[in-house]
Amino acid sequence: MVLAPLRHQALDWATDCPLTTLALALVGAGWLGSYVLSFARMLVDLARPGIPLKRFGAKKGAWAIVTGATAGIGRDFALQLAGAGFNVFLASRTTSKLEEIAQEITAKYPSAKTQVHAIDFSDPKADYAALKAALDPLDVGVLVNNVGKSYDEPTFFQDLPDQDMIDIVEININAALKVTKIVIPGMVSRKRGLILNVGSFASLIPSPLLAVYSGSKAFLSTWSQSLGSELKGTGVEVELLNTYFVVSKLSKIRRSSWMIPTPKTYVRSVLSHIGVRGGAVGQPHISTPYHGHAPVQWVVDHFFSNSFWLNYNRKLHLDIRRRALRKREREAAKAVKAE
Ligand SMILES: NC(=O)c1ccc[n+]([C@@H]2O[C@H](COP(=O)([O-])OP(=O)(O)OC[C@H]3O[C@@H](n4cnc5c(N)ncnc54)[C@H](OP(=O)(O)O)[C@@H]3O)[C@@H](O)[C@H]2O)c1
């Protein structure tokens, strides 16, 4: 009843207005409607629970493998997957740190078995045969390709030390490919598995002055989507985790905020949203599950052009570089004074 006068007014307006105005209004309403629907889809997605970890063998003796498991995001994956009922296989560079985290897991979750495996993923000749021999007997339910290396500070490509360039490709790309190749046959034969690849917003928007890191994460994104599609129907899920800032040594951010979670909060949100797209609305095999990151991706995907965002990132990284160089100069001056 209340809406009747409004309906009449709208009908009168539609009858009186020229056809082109009406057509433009309809196109505008459709465009706006698609944005509203997409935003609503993201909110609904973030509110719904993901695929339960039981589907991948939690509490049934399955193992979760975490690369780069001794610090930051990887450490929390190891702890929380153990808490969820997986045995945990920890692969990182430093044996002493691996043993420390294994002991922490055993103290917190006595029923979780642990295995540690020291491997330097930056080494192109790393012993992947030994890693395969350790993994083959295990019922692997989850693989988290987490290990990653970024720049010390934003740097022009031509100034990036060759070794850093090689390490980033070896750690961020080749390690993920090689470890995944080891576990897929077992996962497919058991008809269950979850492969989580830790990606970055540096691939959502290409990142000047972090070009190699950005490109390596773009590789992970494209590869994850292709692999996820290849494995459709096998029971193995592949997901690229689109990650914005998280407190860690790599990000050099020490204080958390709504948009920058601690690894604990970030990993909790990932593990409770498996199979949920979140901010990556309508993008198969990509997930932006953290509520502070999802709207950022949504805005990047829906507003402004690629060149706008590329320029935005260029200015941002030039600024970070300037500040990093100034800090280094201050520290050098302090060191000279102290001598
Ligand atoms: N933090 C962020 O803001 C952010 C944002 C987007 C994406 N990401 C991604 O998230 C992932 C984890 O990052 P993070 O911030 O948690 O890093 P982090 O705190 O620096 O931890 C890195 C982990 O990787 C291990 N590691 C490093 N180099 C290694 C090597 N050559 N071989 C074997 N293990 C190695 C380290 O252990 P050892 O030192 O004992 O070897 C440590 O366990 C990375 O892929 C990163 O690109 C992070």
TrEMBL record:
<dbReference type="InterPro" id="IPR020904">
    <property type="entry name" value="Sc_DH/Rdtase_CS"/>
</dbReference>
<keyword id="KW-0521">NADP</keyword>
<keyword id="KW-0444">Lipid biosynthesis</keyword>
<dbReference type="Pfam" id="PF00106">
    <property type="entry name" value="adh_short"/>
</dbReference>
<comment type="function">
    <text>Component of the microsomal membrane bound fatty acid elongation system, which produces the 26-carbon very long-chain fatty acids (VLCFA) from palmitate. Catalyzes the reduction of the 3-ketoacyl-CoA intermediate that is formed in each cycle of fatty acid elongation. VLCFAs serve as precursors for ceramide and sphingolipids.</text>
</comment>
<keyword id="KW-0443">Lipid metabolism</keyword>
<dbReference type="GO" id="GO:0141040">
    <property type="term" value="F:very-long-chain 3-oxoacyl-CoA reductase activity"/>
</dbReference>
<feature type="binding site">
    <location>
        <position position="200"/>
    </location>
    <ligand>
        <name>substrate</name>
    </ligand>
</feature>
<dbReference type="GO" id="GO:0005789">
    <property type="term" value="C:endoplasmic reticulum membrane"/>
</dbReference>
<dbReference type="InterPro" id="IPR002347">
    <property type="entry name" value="SDR_fam"/>
</dbReference>
<feature type="transmembrane region" description="Helical">
    <location>
        <begin position="194"/>
        <end position="213"/>
    </location>
</feature>
<keyword id="KW-0276">Fatty acid metabolism</keyword>
<keyword id="KW-0560">Oxidoreductase</keyword>
<keyword id="KW-0812">Transmembrane</keyword>
<keyword id="KW-1133">Transmembrane helix</keyword>
<protein>
    <recommendedName>
        <fullName>Very-long-chain 3-oxoacyl-CoA reductase</fullName>
        <ecNumber>1.1.1.330</ecNumber>
    </recommendedName>
</protein>
<dbReference type="InterPro" id="IPR036291">
    <property type="entry name" value="NAD(P)-bd_dom_sf"/>
</dbReference>
<dbReference type="InterPro" id="IPR027533">
    <property type="entry name" value="3_ketoreductase_fungal"/>
</dbReference>
<feature type="transmembrane region" description="Helical">
    <location>
        <begin position="20"/>
        <end position="44"/>
    </location>
</feature>
<feature type="active site" description="Proton acceptor">
    <location>
        <position position="213"/>
    </location>
</feature>
<keyword id="KW-0275">Fatty acid biosynthesis</keyword>
<dbReference type="GO" id="GO:0030497">
    <property type="term" value="P:fatty acid elongation"/>
</dbReference>
<keyword id="KW-0472">Membrane</keyword>
<comment type="similarity">
    <text>Belongs to the short-chain dehydrogenases/reductases (SDR) family.</text>
</comment>
<keyword id="KW-0256">Endoplasmic reticulum</keyword>
<comment type="pathway">
    <text>Lipid metabolism; fatty acid biosynthesis.</text>
</comment>
<dbReference type="GO" id="GO:0045703">
    <property type="term" value="F:ketoreductase activity"/>
</dbReference>
